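Write out the 3D structure for:
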Amino acid sequence: MGLLLPSQAVLADPDEFYKTKNCFACHRVERNHLGPSFKSIAAKYTDDKGADQKLAKKVIEGGVGVWGNVPMPPQAQVNEEEALTLARWILEQK
């Protein structure tokens, strides 16, 4: 058995993938922690057709101001494909 590529790892267990990319340091699925819960993020972007792209960009570049004054640092360990996978998973957490 060879090494899993990131997309294969995501498909193997999408509900655990976010834990491998440091998201769990600040986020939880159902409750706010240092950052907003994934359910809150999904609810905020329910009607936004481009939300997956926006969130993927936010994962990679970081940001501040959407959820208050606590900054989200850029996640340099996450590539574009992984960021988009994470964003789409977050948006499913309604």
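The chain has one domain: 6-91.
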